[in-house]
Amino acid sequence: MQLTANRATCIGAGQCVFTDPDAFDQDDDGLVLVLRPEPAATEEIARATEAVHVCPSRSLRLVESAP
Amino acid sequence: MTTATFSMQRIDPYSPPAEHLRLQQEAPVSQVPWRNDTTIWAVTRHADVRTVLGDARFSSDRSLPGHPTFAGYTSASKLKNLIEMDPPEHTQQRVRVMGEFTVKKIAAMRPRIEQIVEETIDAMLASGTEADLVEALSLPVPSVVIAELLGVPFEDHSLFQENSAAFVEADATPEQRMAAMGALKEYIGGLVADRIERPGDDILSRQLAAGAPPEELTALGFLLLIAGHETTANMISLCVATLIDKPELLQQLRENPALLPGAVEELLRYFTIAEVGGLRLATADLEVGGVLIPAGDAVFALCNTANRDAEVFPEPNTIDFTRGARNHVAFGFGPHQCLGQNLARLELEIVLEAVIRRIPTLRFAGTFDDISFKEWGPNYGVYRLPVAW
Ligand code: HEM
Ligand code: SF4
């Protein structure tokens, strides 16, 4: 799977970092950084899915990797 | 003229108003009477609340004609602050300040907040064997934290704290409240002016350096105080009251302190105290849950009721410290979602840990039924919490 973030719409709430600190971080300006752009294990995908769901500005996407 | 208003009255202090829960079951998006003979759309389901709060066309701009305001919750300033702005103005200001509130930067405040909490509890315990917890613990902790965040010099802490307490004092007259607010604004304005001359290592100086206009910064400083003080204080009081009232929950935390972050999250969901944050004005015809809300109508996204939506939270009325639900809307949703949420979580966790560890004999000085709850807001909480140890 491919995990991406839209830094133009991120409002720095940090919900993603709070939900899945292994997959996300924030830079000094509070903007999201994706640490694990290709979650693979079931557990990684589950947590990334939750983070996508809780992001208040809907700035995160998790999609199938291109074959 | 009728005075019928959508009721915020609760029968049970642990539940949202019964009327709101009924609406969620029977008419999840529906028009109800509002203040001054107007109506408002009550939105009660979790998914629909996220739709409203996630779409800035449901405006937060309280200067727009027809924007619903809550009694006692009118704009504190002629100068707009972050919480009452729409994009792109909102985005610009939020992006400039959000770096101050990242998970990591807030986590770095832990040792200092722990120290503040220990000192506050020391003073409370030294004062005797009984106290009003609201006055002795709940209000001072977040007030000192915000004072330090803003870089209020130590010698001004008591002035800052007295005025911020007076501003939310249950028995204060509107005049006393206005006076306290005036004093605080003047003080914060002075602080900003001082940082222009002598920049320091604090939020105001960094915002000035990032190009924030001084008057905007005064509004922001004041917003941080009103958004972060009474809210956090109310949650502290409600959490402690709940743990005393439900000893089985307290016991769980005693036996397994690792449950604390989950407990804080669950109690945030359970009380959802800042419900007035969900007031919006539709600026376009917009569909919510299959219902068309016309442009110009007022909307109330009821986060407290949404957080009891059984489709999202199984057994929603049970307090379950292991629930692990992060998708609650106690901090709102969308562009205005609480900027201080990581700080609020940290303060609550530290306070609860310290209360449990340091005051094992804590009990109500009266009974749970004696407590009077802030049903009419703006935020839910308790006026006083007489405790003994
Ligand atoms: C338990 C405590 C708290 C609760 C329940 C809470 C709740 C909320 C809610 C529901 C909103 C959204 C309002 C809206 O949509 O219009 C909000 C916004 C906000 N909160 Fe909090 N809050 C808490 C603590 C804090 C703290 C400690 C601070 C900072 C020191 C803070 C600062 C803010 C700010 C600045 C906003 C406006 C954000 C924006 O408009 O972009 N809050 N809060
Ligand atoms: S949860 Fe969304 S808005 Fe918040 S920091 Fe992460 S990406 Fe940004």
From TrEMBL, chain A:
Keyword Metal-binding: yes
Record-linked InterPro entries: Fe-S_cluster_ET (IPR051269)
Xref: Pfam families: Fer4_13
Origin superkingdom: Bacteria
Record's keyword terms, sorted: 3Fe-4S, Electron transport, Iron, Iron-sulfur, Metal-binding, Transport
Keyword match Magnesium: no
Essential cofactor(s): [3Fe-4S] cluster
Designated name of the protein: Ferredoxin
Species the sequence originates in: Agromyces allii
Source species taxonomy: Bacteria, Bacillati, Actinomycetota, Actinomycetes, Micrococcales
From TrEMBL, chain B:
SUPFAM superfamilies tied to this protein: Cytochrome P450 (SSF48264)
Classification via InterPro entries: Cyt_P450, Cyt_P450_B, Cyt_P450_CS, Cyt_P450_sf
Keywords: Heme, Iron, Metal-binding, Monooxygenase, Oxidoreductase
Family affiliation: Belongs to the cytochrome P450 family.
Name the record gives this protein: Cytochrome P450
Organismal lineage: Bacteria, Bacillati, Actinomycetota, Actinomycetes, Micrococcales
